[in-house]
Structures are given as C-alpha cells and as structure tokens.
C-alpha cells in the first residue's frame, strides 16, 4: 500500500448538512411530537412526497428570477438525462402531488408535511444546506378564515412551546396579480428615478423582480426603500377587504401582529396574505416560520384555479430558539429513569428479566440494562454516566431474599432495599413525583 493510500483524508459530512446526534434527538422528537399532535387537533392530514422532483416543477412555481432558483438549487441530471432537483421547499411538491392524485377535485384539503429541504446557501448559525421544515398547505378555501386558522395554529404551537412572548407576527398583503402588476410599474418608475443609489443586485432586479428590491438589507439603500410607494396603498378592493377581514379575525382571537408593508417573501407564487413569525433572539436568521396565500399556483402548474394558503417552519431555528431561551423541558432531554445494575454474573439473567417485567408494568418507564460486566467500581461509574435518575441494584443478597436495592443517582437520598414485588408501586410513585413514605 502506498503512503498516500494510508494517509487518505477522512470523509466528512457535506458542509451545511448536519448529523443529528443522539444527545440532540430527544428535543427533536419532543418538538415533532408537539407538532404532530397539534395537526391532529386541527384536522390536518399528513402527506409525504419524494425529496427529488423534476427541476421544472420548482422553476415554474418558485419563479425563475428568485434566489432559490437562480443560485440555490441542487440540480443534476440523472442517468436518463432528466434534470432533477433536491426539493428546496415543500409547497411545490405538495401541489404537484395533490394535483396528480386528484385531491383537489371539488374538495378542500388541509395537509401537513415534514422533512429535509435543500438549498445551496452560505451556511451559518440557523442557515443550512440541508434543513428541515414542517409545513401546512390548505386548498380550496378562499376566505380569510383559513388564513386566520393557519396563523392561529402556528400561534398555538408557540404557546405550547413557551415561545409566544418571543416571536412576532409580521403581516402584509400582496394583492391580486393585476394590482401587483400596476404597483410594479409604479415601483420601477420610482426606483428608476433613484437609480444612482441602487446596488448591482437591485439594478438587475429592476427589470426582473423589482419588489425584491424592497427586501434589500443594504443600508445605503434604506432611505430610498423607505420612501418607495407601498403596495398596501395600491391594493385592489377585494384584496383590501380580504386583508381587513383577516386582521379583524386575528384581533378577535387576541393575536398581536405588525403590518410590514415591505414583507414581500422570496418566492413568486404568493398573492394576497403573506406573513412571517420572527424573533430577535437568533441574530440574522430570525424568521422561524413563514407563509402566505398562493391562489394562482395550482392553475400555473396546469390545474383548475384553486385558492391555497400555507406556511412552513424551520425546525433547526426553532430548536435553536428553545435552547437559547432555555425552554427545553425535562421530557425533551430524554433522560433515563432507571439503570438496571446486576452486581455480578449470577445477577445478570435476573436483572434482564426484571427489566422486561418493569417494561410490561410501566410502559412509560425508560430503563437501560447494564451489559458488559466489569468491576463494581466500573459498573457504578456506568450507572452514573447513563444519566438515569435511579439505579436498581441486584446482587447476591437481593437475589437470595427476592429484593432489589434502589439507589438515587441524582439526589441526596438514602438508598433503600425493598421487596421486588413492591418495586412497580414504588417506581410509579417516584415517577409521578410523589414522596415516598
Ligand atoms: P421559506 O420562507 O423559504 O418558505 O422557508 C420557510 C422557513 O424555513 C423559513 O422561515 C426558515 O425558518 C426555514 N428555512 C428556510 N431556509 C432555511 C435554511 N437554509 N436553513 C434553515 N432554515 C431555513 C417556504 O419554504 C414556503 N414553502 C413556505 C410556504 C408554505 N408558503 C406557503 N406554504
């Protein structure tokens, strides 16, 4: 073997694509569990679609002149020469699947999904190349009541997670296609009058997607953007009424919001309502959830006109937020309740069986069996390292008298020896937080 063979560099994960390690997974499971339960409570059904789609699907829905399509898609030719793309978001796939399987024929749908999305962005805290979204998409419902419902659903999630005081709802209306086209002309005329202030990106957008200039974070352009005509002042009558009714519903439900006339979103399919939930606790990647109405998309992809509204949240950002604000509940830490500790070879079989009995009697119990032998000292060390609250010790004496020794690993409390027959009751009381006699 040559030297270069033995010195080969270790293969590492792709930049911006993260492993989810065992210590992190309990929090993800807790988060996903909360969302799944919530979707059921609102009557939303899960849909799962492939992570790869034909490239044309994203170009036609997200828009050719968007950052996602221009710069961020993972696109490749497969072995048949077809252009495929790793999905950068879930809405387009959801619409494609709903159309393909006839879910939109004379019926309404309330769907949700979860999974990895892929965008070739510059990785930083809260921004990754593979990230995970949970999204909802509703179809066939035109009124602002469904816009209000999806917003209330997300608000309930923040409340459940203890995040409601830490996120702000930003809201805007983009109006109808016609109103937007008229506004676009106004905006182009305005920015052309201030062309000397525009940066290169914005000059390019002037011809293709002038509303995205409003999104620019360039401080040199802040003043000009501030003075630009506001879409809100040029809405068509029907969109204005839709928006006013939505605001009234949110007011009645006690949901606070800020109307942000510069909120335009980075995907082309939106019209009327758009919204984002933002936080100041995560630095520049502060949008934890975003969405809006996209009444034209189904038709644009070859279906019948179908009103639609939805949103997607970024799981990584919400997990970061829970950690940053120290809002991770004990149940999301995944700690063991019990470490089953046979003290010698003879106790191993009985400890294994005791574990099975306990799992039958207490389905919620999280118990781990000590395997692999070792000295008394190393066994105790492993028990401590397991993170369990209690150790159940089985040695020669316990075997002889049918008992078990219960040792508290995290509290200053006397250990106790008790009959094995009393163990289930004792553990039940302990796990329910009752003090023992
Ligand atoms: P989006 O704003 O592109 O919308 O993404 C939604 C959320 O996904 C963002 O607010 C953020 O929390 C998260 N996210 C986006 N990119 C990244 C990234 N690179 N790293 C980490 N998190 C990220 C959509 O995707 C639309 N499909 C939402 C929608 C559904 N609209 C209607 N229905």
TrEMBL record:
The gene is hisS. One of its GO terms (cellular component) is cytoplasm. It is found in: Cytoplasm. It catalyses: tRNA(His) + L-histidine + ATP = L-histidyl-tRNA(His) + AMP + diphosphate + H(+). Residues 36-342 form the Aminoacyl-transfer RNA synthetases class-II family profile domain. Its EC number is 6.1.1.21. This is Histidine--tRNA ligase. PANTHER family: HISTIDINE--TRNA LIGASE, MITOCHONDRIAL-RELATED, HISTIDYL-TRNA SYNTHETASE. GO terms for biological process: histidyl-tRNA aminoacylation. NCBIfam families: hisS (TIGR00442). One of its GO terms (molecular function) is ATP binding. InterPro entries: aa-tRNA-synth_II, aa-tRNA-synth_II/BPL/LPL, Anticodon-bd, Anticodon-bd_dom_sf, His-tRNA-ligase, HisRS-like_core, HisRS/HisZ, HisRS_anticodon. Keywords: Aminoacyl-tRNA synthetase, ATP-binding, Cytoplasm, Ligase, Nucleotide-binding, Protein biosynthesis. Belongs to the class-II aminoacyl-tRNA synthetase family. L-histidine binds at residues 89-91, 119, 133, 137, 265, 269-270. Homodimer. HAMAP family: His_tRNA_synth. It is an enzyme of class 6 (ligase). It comes from the Bacteria.
């Amino acid at each position: 073997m040559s030297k270069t063979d033995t010195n080969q560099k270790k293969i590492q994960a792709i930049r911006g694509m993260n492993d989810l390690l065992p210590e992190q997974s309990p929090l993800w499971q807790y988060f996903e569990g909360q969302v799944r339960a919530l979707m059921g409570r609102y009557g939303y059904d899960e849909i799962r679609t492939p992570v790869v789609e034909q490239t044309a699907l994203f170009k036609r829905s997200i828009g050719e002149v968007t950052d996602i399509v221009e710069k961020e898609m993972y696109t490749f030719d497969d072995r048949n020469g077809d252009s495929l793309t790793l999905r950068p978001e879930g809405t387009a796939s959801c619409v494609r699947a709903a159309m393909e399987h006839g879910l939109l024929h004379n019926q309404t749908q309330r769907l949700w999904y979860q999974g990895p999305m892929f965008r070739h962005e510059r990785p930083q805290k809260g921004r990754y190349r593979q990230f995970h979204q949970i999204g909802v998409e509703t179809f066939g419902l035109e009124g602002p009541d469904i816009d209000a419902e999806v917003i209330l659903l997300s608000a309930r999630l923040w409340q459940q997670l203890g995040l409601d005081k830490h996120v702000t709802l930003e809201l805007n209306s983009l109006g109808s296609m016609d109103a937007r086209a008229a506004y676009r002309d106004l905006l182009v005329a305005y920015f052309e009058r201030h062309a000397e202030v525009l940066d290169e990106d914005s000059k390019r957008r002037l011809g293709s997607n002038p509303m995205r200039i409003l999104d620019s974070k360039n401080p040199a352009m802040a003043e000009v953007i501030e003075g630009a005509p506001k879409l809100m002042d040029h809405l068509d009558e029907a969109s204005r009424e839709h928006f006013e009714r939505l605001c009234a519903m949110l007011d009645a439900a006690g949901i606070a919001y800020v109307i942000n006339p510069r909120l335009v979103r980075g995907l082309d399919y939106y019209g009327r309502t758009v919204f984002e939930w933002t936080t100041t606790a995560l630095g520049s990647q502060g949008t934890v959830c975003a969405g809006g109405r996209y009444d034209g998309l189904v038709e644009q992809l070859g279906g019948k006109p179908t009103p639609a509204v939805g949103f997607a949240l970024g799981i990584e950002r919400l997990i970061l937020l829970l950690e940053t604000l120290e809002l991770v509940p004990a149940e999301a830490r995944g700690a063991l309740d019990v470490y089953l500790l046979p003290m010698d070879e003879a106790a191993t079989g009985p400890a294994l069986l005791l574990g099975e009995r306990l799992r039958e009697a207490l389905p919620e119990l999280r118990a781990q069996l000590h395997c692999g032998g070792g000295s008394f000292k190393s066994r105790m060390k492993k028990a401590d390292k397991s993170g369990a609250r209690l150790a159940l010790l089985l040695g020669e004496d316990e075997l002889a008298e049918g008992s078990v020794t219960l040792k508290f690993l995290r509290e200053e409390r006397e250990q106790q020896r008790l009959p094995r027959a009393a163990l289930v009751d004792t553990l039940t009381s302990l796990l329910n937080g009752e003090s023992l006699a």
